[in-house]
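FORM 7B - TANDEM STRUCTURE REPORT

SECTION 1: FIRST PROTEIN
SEQUENCE AND TOKENS:
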Amino acid sequence: MRTIENIFWLGTKEIRSFFRDFVLLGLVIYAFSLAILAQAHSYSQEVHNASVGFVDEDHSRLSRRIVQAFLPPYFHQPQPIAERDIVPLMNLGKYTFIIDIPPNFERDVLGGRNPAIQVNVDATMMVQAGLGADYAQEIIMTEIRDFLSHAEGAPLTPVNLNVRIAFNPNVTTAWFTSVMGLINSVSMLAIILAGAAIVREREHGTMDHLLVMPLTPFEIAMSKVWANGLVITVAVGLSLWFVVRLLLGVPIAGSIPLFLLGTAIYLFFACAIGIFLATIARSMPQLGLLYFLVFLPMNMLSGSNTPLESMPPWLATAMQASPSTHYVSFAQAILYRGAGIGVVWPQFAIVAGVGWFFLGLAILRFRSTAAAQAG
């Protein structure tokens, strides 16, 4: 009971110290609000509300089907224009795409003569132009195939592919980047806050006071873990509900309390890493350099930026030892696919086990550091 009481009161001191540090408080607020909104909107990888004009010189049933297939949210309502206006309108930047359907297009398609459709693209709109050209080609080819499959005497294809995208039907980038940004902020802040708590005690001279008190390194370390973990867990819950779900409109398929439980377990590991680094660093600049050496590989190779399947097999296998990989995996399983505890508990156990390992290393380093200072 004495150990639990010491951990509790040291943790409350840490929370009070955190709320008096307006720099760290502002960093937490920014990381779980504006940073997530900026990441969700700045990493857009899909066409959205692209302006498109049509020159329909055929006026056939097939050309009308092609025009009507360009629908929101990818494209604005197609606007009819004259052929002589293509170049002036493109020069003025009025349209990102202008599609010119030639005369007798339907007749040539039915006759098997492979007519061409001209797609004019404003390349100054780089993302919209690059992806939108592929979208336009796919839409046009799909409409032609559907038209031919219903035409009299046209041979039917033996195989038709029907692609269905699960969990994110419109492939909206913000649905992915917002949640992954939230996860990356958890790793970043947990390491920084826990490490800064130890370094701040040393720089302010209060670490000497703690060492002469009847406290063990375990009690000091666990007080930092639960205090900083509680702050970040509350911030994650508020950010997930108000920023991700309400402001960005990302649907949450699974249990938010289960995700917060997994986040708390992962925070145990991340705070242990921060404390371990703080036992090595002697100042905040040194802690910052060590943080980059640890956080960047964990973040870049965890699966939040690129999937593990695209990595070399040996690297993907090696990253299974990193709790950040399992955190990304069970976060996606819970929030996107609605997985329950029966699916994600092995990953919870792995993260907790690695967390205890690094906490043990941090306590050993803490004791050696304290003995050196006492000597």
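SECTION 2: SECOND PROTEIN
SEQUENCE AND TOKENS:
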Amino acid sequence: MNDPLKKYRQQFRIWKNNRRLEREKEYYRREFAARGLSIPDEQTLGQELKKIFPQLAAKKKGDLSIIALYHHYNWENEALKPSLSEFGRVRHYDWWEKFSHQSKDWHRSLKAAMNKDMVRQVSTWMAEEKADVIFAYLSGEIVEPATLQEIRGQGVPLINLALNDKEHFVGKVKKGKAWGARDICRCFDLCWTSTEDALIKYCVEDARPIYLPEGANPQIHRPQAIEKTIDVSFVGQCYGNRRAVVNELRNRGIAVQAYGIGWPDGPLTTEEMVRMYSRSKINLGFGGIAGYKDTYCLKGRDFEIPMSGGLYLTEDHPELRLAFRPGEEILTYSGIDDLMQKIKYYLAHPAEAEAIRIKGYERSLREHSWEMRFAKIFRLLGILQ
């Protein structure tokens, strides 16, 4: 980075973001303790939901009627939709298909129009066939609390998925409104967060949270019977410390191939990405959040790479231990020297690498599919046998 002012501006943004996140953490910790709150366990959640929806009856897998409210950015229709479809009929509302061609300003006009149309569509579908559950992947940037209250008035469970609540639970705030989950979370019957330490935030905001990480789709993320011709690869966007780490590895003699937005070789298709996981002897991962120091969260690739049969080596952080056994099912590193040492070791010891790869694959199939996540949610709601 040749421009010193650009460097200082970037450093200031990182400092500012970390300060904001620390203040947010401290606020919720203080409020959680002061109010004497506790994080509800699954039994408590189930009892509360049964009181809210005493009329619900459990159905067989395949018999559910589901309404799904989310936009397909780049992975959703390959993960969420096919997994939901395993449980029954899915009617999917993607506002982008209807409003993306309009050139009006989103926050001044299109947001209101979309919110109105979402309520209309849900009401129409419910009149045609009452759904058993409404699943959403929404944020405060997209939807208004009043919209969710209208949808919730349909009388069926309304659940929401939120990823990366470390950074985005509040997120940007415009005119007093948070773009994250803060202002809308209490409008859902159940809030599914992939961030364990965000549970207290939901409790303080009078919401009903459950922690479940992301998953993978074994129909798409599956091992390929191809030769491992690449020593180390990384598939993901180029931001934060990723370029510096990849460049340092290359400077030290490691042939790293990187793909994704911002890298010279560009992004891969889903099919190419899954093949890359099998072609690579080691699949590199990063757990950090851009613009935040020492702040980590689980990523979709944490599950997609092992389920695709790839050996996974990613940044060490506590939440990984909730999903895998580091050193046995996946590999982790702390700092560039540790990363370099482990890459060299496992490239030189392919039998050990293979044993870890297989165990990671087996653990993913056994516990970490999106379908399993939804099954747990639906049983908690009392709508799945």
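SECTION 3: OBSERVATIONS ON SECOND PROTEIN
The chain has a mean pLDDT of 93.
The chain has two domains: 36-213+370-381, 230-367.

SECTION 4: SIGNATURE
Preparer initials: ____
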